[in-house]
Design a protein that fits this description.
171 residues; alpha+beta; Immunoglobulin-like; four-stranded antiparallel beta sheet; three-stranded antiparallel beta sheet; 19% helix; flat
Length: 171
Amino acid sequence: MADKEKKETGAVEKTAEAEKAPATALTPFEEMDRMMHRLSEGFLPRGWLRRMRWEWPDWPEMPALRMPRVDVVDRDEDVVVKAEVPGMDKKDLDISVTENAVTIKGTKKREKKEEKGEYYRREISESSFSRTVALPADVDGSRAKASCSDGVLELVIPKLKKSTRHTVKVN
């Protein structure tokens, strides 16, 4: 009788397949990871990728290529820009200022040589970054001052027009 009632009301029994969540698309990285896992499980001996790792360069020794974190502070008479540039010397930095933006560029070159008897190893690496930050006010770039210490670059750039602050009461 229950089957007749379901047919008459148009209700359809849910199967285990219908209750499953719909499949979501994988990102390209997830798809590549899945393919590599299938390849290593089906055809290649266990741990083959780990053995290849010994032939790769020393990753901790290679300089990281990343964008520096930047803080912009709007003061009454000037704008202060602080950027994290760890491991960079002031000779490796190039700073340019326009009326409303600052561009910080850095290039780090590194060379490592190792000689033991007839064994000779030489690694050369280079990393660089470029970051442009919009400024909250028009500034006078010709009077900008920069200093770099402990991996922090600090730029103090005078404003063209002093900003006035007003307090606003919240109702």
